[in-house]
Structure prediction request, 278 residues.
Amino acid sequence: MVPGEIYSHNEIKRYSRKSQVRLSSPGVTRRIWIGDMKFLIAGLGSIGRRHLRHLVALGQEDILLYRTHRGTLPDDELSGYPTETDLSAALNHKPDAVIISNPTSLHLNVAIPAAEAGCHILLEKPVSHSLDRLDELQAIVEKECGHVLVGFQFRYHPGLHQVEKVLSGKQIGRPISFRAHWGEYLPDWHPWEDYRRSYSARKDLGGGVILTLAHPLDYLGWFFGEVEALWAFAGQLSDLELNVEDTAEIGLKFVNGVIGSVHLDYNQRPPRHQLEIV
Prediction:
C-alpha cells in the first residue's frame, strides 16, 4: 500500500491494523493507510507533544524533532528522539510529513521549506497570522504535489457532525440565524507558565483571541458556505496584561442569507463554548 493514499475497507482489512487512521469528514468515515513514514514535528509545546503521543499510539517510530528550545515544558517526554535545531538539517533527514505546531507567526517559516522539500504537511490553525506569503506556499504545494491539512479538528467533532446532518437534511427547515459563543480564561490554559509568555497572548507570535479561537469561523463556513459581508469590534478590554485583543464580537452574513454573530473572549470563567441555530 502507498502511504497517504485512500483505500477501501476491504483492501485495508488485508493488511495489519497497526497504522490505520480513522478519519471522519462530512457524511463519510474512511481509513487512510499511513504505512512506514518518517515524521518531523516542528514545535514541541503542548499541541506538538499531543501530536507526538498520537503518532506513538498509532505505532509510528520514525519521528524526528525540530526544536528551538524556547518552550516552557520539561524535556523528559522528548528524550530519546533525534533532534535538530536547524531546519535545513532537519529536512535533510528526508521526512515524508511535517507537523507544524510552532507559534502562528512562525508557521510559514517552516511550511514553505517543507513544501519545497516535497513533504506532506499537517499545519496547526490558523495557517498564518497574515496573508503574506500564502500564495507562495500554495504555488509550491501545487508544484510539488504535496498535501496540506490544516488542524481545524472541530470538523471531526461528533456533535458538530450531527449539526451538519440536521442542517443538510433540512430537519429543522431553512436556517435563518446563528449565535456562536466561546469564552475561556487565558491564564488557566497553561498553569505551568506565565500566560503573558504564551503565543496566544503575544502579537509578535500571532496571538489574539480571533486567531487563537478561530474554530467557530471555520465550522460556520462548513455549515453555511461563503461569507458575503462582516463587521467586527475587538480590543484588549480586560485587565489581563496582553498586547493583543482579548474580546471580539463578529457579525457575519453568508451568501445564502444566513446571518449571525460570533463572540470570542479570553476572560470567561468557567469556560463556555456553545452554538445556537434558528
The longest strand covers residues 267-277. The chain has two domains: 37-151, 157-277. The chain has a mean pLDDT of 88.
